[in-house]
Amino acid sequence: MVKKQKFTSFTLFVSIIAAIGGLLFGYNTATISGAILFLTKDFNLSTIAQEVMISIILVGALVGACFGGILTDRIGRKKSLFITSIVFIIGTFIVMIAQTVTMLFIGRIILGLAIGVVSLAVPLYIAEMSDPTHRGALVSLNQLAITIGILLAYVIDYFYAPTGEWRSMFGVAMIPAVLLFIGLFFIPETPSFLAIRGKKDKALKILKKIEVDTSHSEVVVEKGTSKKRVSWKNLLEKSVKPALFAGIGISIFQQITGINVVIYYAPRIFQMAGLESATSAILATMGVGVINLLMTFVALWIIDLVGRKPLLIVGLIGMSLSLGVLGIGFLQTTGTASIISIVSLMCYVSFFAIGLGPVTWLIISEIYPMGIRGRAMGIAIFANWTCNYIVSLTFLNLVGFFGKSGAFWFYGVICLLGLWFVIKKIPETKGKELKEIQKYFKKAK
Ligand code: BGC
Q1: Please, which contacts does 295-299 make with residues 24 or more away whose CB atoms are closer than 8 Å?
Q2: How many angstroms does the Cα of residue 308 sit away from the middle of ligand 1?
């Protein structure tokens, strides 16, 4: 068992810098919800063009996740973040000055690529920089930053809505992008990556700086800490396969349980629930952003105390119950029914925020061996973005097919499947060294 370790302000500092990448992820995925109204007006967008405008960023992200995996294992976690911060600056600049729809598409696909890379590199970087007793909270700073980014996007959209300044809505992202770029000059490469490259002395120096108990760290324990490259084939090793499967599974469930239906379509869902005026629907959407952020704080607070699995289990049970009630609320059109729908939607988001939201990113940053960690995460995160894309694209058809209640019950049933998956396939990783976690999968083969 790993002993309780000291928590250094340096670790917190490097984690916060990296987490700016999470903020850019949240902001850039959510800001379109407000901007699309004005883009449609200014460029006379057809329905298909609107759909492409919204979803193209997800396509960029799923490609970016694949690149990110290879990049982080090849050139390192920090250098990958560095390149990505420049890509964010370029993408934001293009959408800010875009004069044509094509330019907007190009800008958004570039932003998507960067989002795909940070969605992988940030949890990876933080996991490798933290000690086992604080890793849960530190890696979850990434999810906290994502939720801050989403809320910020809702607020900024609301602020610029009266004037319809979509360029400013997109442009605000330049501030965190530049901050990330500058911040990266002040943070080191992770000890694990340095060890993979044979720079063990440098790795040990950093471990000392972050006051990690070096006697257990994978940097010291790992035998393969030479310059030898670990190949893709290692992903198919018997001991790695169950971890790969667990990571892909949890990533898929994070998306197919429907969270982004709420994040991307919230105003429309609130209108379905009876909030007819656009202003009240938008305000309720901000409520979603606030609840999401606050409950992520709660998760961060308790994740290293109660563990990952209990949070996932409680989260998934809560999500499926909330969706059940939400479906019932949609069966009627009375005032009470609409209150029931709104409250259950908020509960659903809260349960996501204490469970699947933060824990998914954490688990996939913890369960893979260090030499192939980037690539293995890339595969899981590719699955995450692909499902995100499919769910966002099919939601309105699903409502057409099953009806409003049926659509939400459908996601509710998937939550129960997710619950089964978590109980059966996900190990408890609380307080364990990264190296120790892989032993679980070696036994599981
Ligand atoms: C998910 C995103 C989602 C966000 C909501 C993240 O963990 O990956 O798809 O929009 O949480 O907070």
Answers
A1: 295/349, 295/350, 295/351, 295/353, 295/354, 296/140, 296/143, 296/144, 296/147, 296/353, 296/354, 296/357, 296/358, 297/144, 298/353, 298/354, 299/140, 299/143, 299/353, 299/354, 299/355, 299/357, 299/358, 299/359
A2: 17
Q: At what angle do helices 278-306 and 135-160 cross, to 10 degrees?
A: 170
**Radius of gyration, CA atoms only, the chain:** 21
Label residue 129 exposed, middle or buried (CB < 10 Å: 0-12, 13-18, 19+): buried
The Cα–Cα gap between 213 and 433 comes to 10
Q: Is 226 left (phi over 0), alpha (psi -120 to 50) or beta?
A: beta
Atom nearest to 384 CA in ligand 1: 8
60-73 CB burial, b ≥16 within 10 A, e <16: bbbbbbbbbbebbb
Q: Residue of the nearest CA to atom 7 in ligand 1?
A: 357
211 DSSP assignment: T
Domain residue ranges in the chain: 9-444
Alpha helices in 307-426 (DSSP H): 308-331, 335-354, 356-366, 373-425
Two structure tokens written together for 178: 């530049």
Q: Domain 9-444 falls in which CATH fold?
A: Growth Hormone; Chain: A; (1.20.1250)
Q: Judge contact between 140 and 124, C-beta under 8 A.
A: no
Backbone φ and ψ for 225, nearest 5 degrees, come out as -85, 60
Strands (E), 156-269: none
Nearest to 263 by CA among 372, 175, 345: 345
The CA dihedral of 91, 94, 96, 102, to the nearest 10 degrees, is -110
- Report CA(357)–ligand 1 centroid distance (Å): 6
Considering only CA atoms, which residue is closest to atom 11 of ligand 1? Answer: 357
The residue whose C-alpha atom lies closest to atom 12 belonging to ligand 1 is 147
Mean pLDDT by 10 residues, the chain (445 residues): 70 97 97 90 92 93 95 96 98 97 97 98 96 93 98 93 93 98 97 90 87 69 54 75 93 97 86 82 89 97 96 98 95 86 95 98 93 92 97 90 95 98 94 83 69
- The DSSP secondary-structure symbol of 232 reads G
Cα(154) to ligand 1 centroid in Å equals 15
